Amino acid sequence: MKKKLLLLGGSVYLIPVIEAAHALDLYVITCDYLPDNVAHSYADEYHNVSIVEKDAVLELAKSLRVDGIMSFATDPGVTTAAYVAEKMGLPSCGSFASVSILQNKGKFRAFLRDNGFHTPLARSYTDVKAALSDLDDFHWPLIVKPTDSAGSKGVTRIDRAEQLEESIRDALRCSIKKEFIIEEFIEAEGYSSDSDCFSVDGELRFVSFSDQHFDRNSDNPYTPCGYSWPCEMDGKQQNELRTEIQRLIRLLGLGTSLYNVETRVGKDGTPYIMELSPRGGGNCISECLRYAAKTDLITAAVRAAVGLSVDVAQNPYDGFWAELILHANQAGRFESVEIADMLKENLVRLDCWEKTGAPVGAFTGANKAIGTALFRFETRDKLDHLMADPDRYVSVRVRA
Q: How many domains is the chain built from?
């Protein structure tokens, strides 16, 4: 009989995971509370069960007798996957306790602090008054965000105390557990990084760092609008971060897993691990790395989820790569994506998830992306030319 893989969620980012699983002759089951989500039509079976209800997912997994469970690019399902795997003795990246630390921004900051990692001052709260009473302890500016949300949803930078209450309300609206974190904002030297890594039996086998790009004209300027590889980060700082990521994996007792890792280097040269989540990143990062680094992290993650052997190699980048996250800066009806003629020979892949005439929202978070465009260049100069002004070469047409 085929091995059964239960995937949590149903977003477009799960489609390449389902394709990889089918290539391995696995039977794929998806679940969430949104039956119209696009990935369900690619799966062999779908169940309407909320992925944040971990005991309900456990009962579903038991009844289906699944061989593995996985949450890819779906942050709310990561702790549920670890919980179910632990209860059923299925392959997992690590214990439910360790994954719970990684998936809660407050617990993660505390763990980093207690174990000697570089980390900004941060505190988590459920009460607005408690947060207001602590303001004198922080150095400005500050970042307010939900402790349990991803994709830059509910994230706000504040520079004045009078901005705090509204920012907290935004964060709480995006929090499942109605908890938020306040932390000192680390001004980055150069670009911050958001990319995927992979460990096998607790040993880092693949590490990547990106240059993360933002659209300052969007409704949420902290939502990434693009990535480029290789990054411009200094080699010494990359090595230090790789060492610290490895130390973190060992301290938490993690094993074989794909990770989405966010890092940055502060103005004083100090490198920081900002986030580490045992899942593939959104925005098709692992797919981009399959092209750019000739490493199939998606298939490796699927194999790990059902207990198959995993082989991951650290390969050099094949050229210079840029991914643009297609988005609209105003709500309206989608019309088209237009690529400048001079870039068409560099276009490797274009994915657009909306049909002409479909309603699209302003770019307030990663869930408002309408597609991706991946480019390859022979030189960094050409890459930098695109990323300096991407709207000049790639435009999303939206009518009011």
A: 3
